Amino acid sequence: MFLIDSHCHLDQLNSCLLEDKFEKILKRADENYVKKFLTISTSIDNFQKSKKLLKKYKSIFYSCGVHPLHCHKEIKKICQLEQLSLSKRVIGLGETGLDYYYSAETKNIQQKFFREHIRIAIKLNKPIIVHTRNAIKDTIKILKQEHAEKCGGILHSFTESEESALKLLEMGFYISFSGIITFKNSIDLRKTLKKIPLEKLLIETDSPYLSPVPHRGKKNQPAYLLDIAKKIAFIKEIHLEELAKITTNNFFKLFNLNL
Q1: pTM score > 0.85 for this model?
Q2: How many CB atoms lie within 10 A of CB 21?
Q3: Predicted confidence band of residue 104 (pLDDT cuts 50, 70, 90)
Q4: What sign has the CA pseudo-torsion 59, 13, 93, 86?
Q5: N or C: where does the chain have the smaller number of CB atoms within 10 Å of the terminal CB?
Q6: Which of 175, 132, 168 is CA-nearest to residue 6?
Q7: Tens-digit pLDDT profile for residues 197-235
Q8: SS3 of residue 64 by DSSP
Q9: Domains of the chain from N-terminus onward
């Protein structure tokens, strides 16, 4: 079986910079069938540090981008985004998008950065990884205005309505589910998951955040993707091995990679 963690922050799991600790993280992931990882950057500095830290691991792909909550700090560095994203191991742009929950006062700069990510993604023919919180209407509006269907992408750690999911699917976007799907109160989200076509489904941990049941209270890690996959397979009423195959194929298709 072969699973891919389509959204994690591996550098944050290795904050003490001890190589043996990180080797153990990857070993536990491998034992749980998680074979490849997309580590997501949240700022320009974060991307450069992650790339330096993880460069020897061939199983790790990168994204390059500025998280909406970091936009106001990256005004002078956003000009580097396109050049850094040219690297072959950078397979996507992001994490980008809008977050009005924590920083509604920076809406304008968030929207400006979001549009810039989409434009570069289209130019480089690389998908975007989208974060949205309390901002789904503006997120979808900007995706449509900037013709994001030309580059495609993922709405990561999806928690929005079925209606929003359908609008994203109409643009060709993939929907990714995290450990939130395992939470007891995620009843509506599980109903939405049932409506998502298998060919547009991805799975993620968002490590070190959002640990799934039964690991609540612990720092999340890629090994726990197996618990998320089991829950999703149960909800979708398919075998775990089939879900693994489908989501792996979806990942390689979206990011234009060879199996």
Answers
A1: yes
A2: 12
A3: confident
A4: negative
A5: C
A6: 175
A7: 999 999 999 999 999 999 999 999 999 999 999 999 999
A8: strand
A9: 3-254 (3.20.20.140)
